[in-house]
Amino acid sequence: MIERVGGAALRVYAAHRRRTLEGVARDAARIQEAALLDLVNAARGTTFGRSHRFEQVRSVADYQARTPLGDYLRFQPLWNRAINGERDLTWPGRPRYWVKTSGTTAGDKMIPVTSEAFRAHRKGGWDALLIAAERAGFEGVAGGPLLFLGGCATLKPVGQGCWVGDLSGLMVQDLPPGFRSRYSPGRAIASIPEWDQRIDAVAELVARQDLRLISGMPSWLLILFERVARARRAAGRPVSSLGECWENLGAIIHGGVSFAPYRATVEGWMGRPVEYVEVYPASEGFVGLQTERTGGLTLMLDYGIFYEFVPVEDLGRARPRRHTVADVELDRPYAVALTAPGGLWSYLLGDTIRFTTRDPLRLVITGRTRHFVNAFGENVIVEEIEQALVVACRRTGAEPGEFTVAPRYPSAGDARGGHDWLVEFRVPPRDRDAFVRDLDEALAALNTDYRTKRTLDVGMVAPQLLELPLGAFHRWMRENGKLGDQHKVPRVMNDRTIAATLLTEVRAAGRRGAGAPPAEARL
User: Fold this and answer.
1) 14, 132, 229, 235: which has the fewest C-beta neighbours closer than 10 Å?
2) How far is it, in rounded angstroms, from Cα 361 to Cα 37?
3) What span, in angstroms and rounded, lies between the C-alpha atoms of 495 and 397?
């Protein structure tokens, strides 16, 4: 009975949201300007609003003339004052909750999450659930546990009467009543602070549950799947696939990192078709989700967030161009800036995207503004790294775990440098030399500058594969306090800081005779 009632309710609401989103797509520019003016009017009396003359803002152009683009370092002094007791700084009142997220310019960051921001995040979560249920079957999704593999639900006190935690942990604090009984792994397990212990406890639980939906970051989901398989074997109940373990599982919601390098491995674990829904839930705001099976992520325009898009080549200029949904171009790389309830004003997320379709606007995430390699004029971005890896894995039967790419600089013995690919393999390539050739050829096909530098080795030599033991990246993340939750391995960097540290730690572990634990057996 609960299954039928819950499924019927989801079906009605999904139909309503579909109609709403169709209307939003037809009137995107007006809805976005209205969202901006609502935010500006709400913050007119704040310190930030007064200093930027929000009382004079009547249009997007007025706002952009008074409010420059900014990043975390620009807002950090005001937010520190809010944490320590001051009110009405970048948003009316004083945020009680703060989300902690890792950053590339200022270390760990604390972003305010107001009640209005909570509503926007929750709306994105509901829309993702509705899309998944629409594809997988409303009654099926509503009929059992829904696993959300997120961060620790335990919050820590900070400043004067404030609390800080992971975004997914913050959202657990106020689950809708109809969702609480279906939420897995539950508050107790989600509150375990140590990531390894928490994921072991999750695996023990869900190995016995009739899961209907799973949500999480692909790289962490693979670790969970391995531990579920281990738990099933230890209990004397092995299965040939996790699709057999979870016979009613209908959908997997994923985000945080590109799914493409992991798709084949996830599909192998499932052993049967399930629906996949990609989401783009930044800590600063829920940006987009995959409303259709193909075509990229739909930019969600009715969450009370105003978006600006800066051509990547304009970053760092005194007067960068700032486009809105009214005038973006397809297939052009943009950096994303958002203005959101909670006191973020033209805040640069650090993500780069390109639009693939219009009406509705759909996008793909191409990387990070600070994650690229350009040591030799090749200017390779994350999207190209991931696409080349997918090609090489497909051609050689490999299945990757974590990976990163770094420049290898010229030395006394080699006048030309190249790229080092540091890769963990769950399944190694059949032919490692062929794998490297495939990487090289795929990047050359994707990137003209790389192809020019690689032609006759004129500017770069061939890439080098440095195969790391499975678990090396996770140990590095643990030692740096970034294991689990929403922390991610940078896919490419323009220096050797991460690569050098990883290689040093792997060599040290080898000398101690404490190499990485063997890859856990497949089912």
Assistant:
1) 235
2) 21
3) 30
Residue type, 358: R
Measured in degrees and rounded to the nearest 5, phi and psi for residue 414 equal: -150, 105
If you average pLDDT over residues 210-231, what whole number do you get? 94
Helices 432-446, 382-396: inter-axial angle, 10-degree rounding: 140
Least confident range of 66-70, 108-112, 209-213: 108-112
Q: What does the block give as tokens for 153?
A: 């639900």
Condensed to tens digits (0 to 9), the pLDDT of residues 392-406 reads: 999 999 999 999 999
Element (H, E) at 47: helix 47-51
Residue with tokens 């939906």: 213
Contact 202, 189 (CB under 8 A): yes
53 or 521, greater pLDDT: 53
Averaged confidence pLDDT in the chain? 90
Through-space distance between the first and last CA atoms of the chain, rounded to whole angstroms: 35
What pLDDT is stored for residue 105 in this prediction? Answer: 44
Q: How are beta strands 162-165 and 97-101 bridged, if at all?
A: parallel
- For 385, the token pair is 């790294």
**Partners of 306 in beta bridges:** 339
Coil, helix or strand at residue 61: helix
**Exposed / middle / buried, residue 457 (Cβ in 10 Å: 0-12, 13-18, 19+):** exposed
Question: 523 pLDDT band (50/70/90 cuts)?
Answer: very low
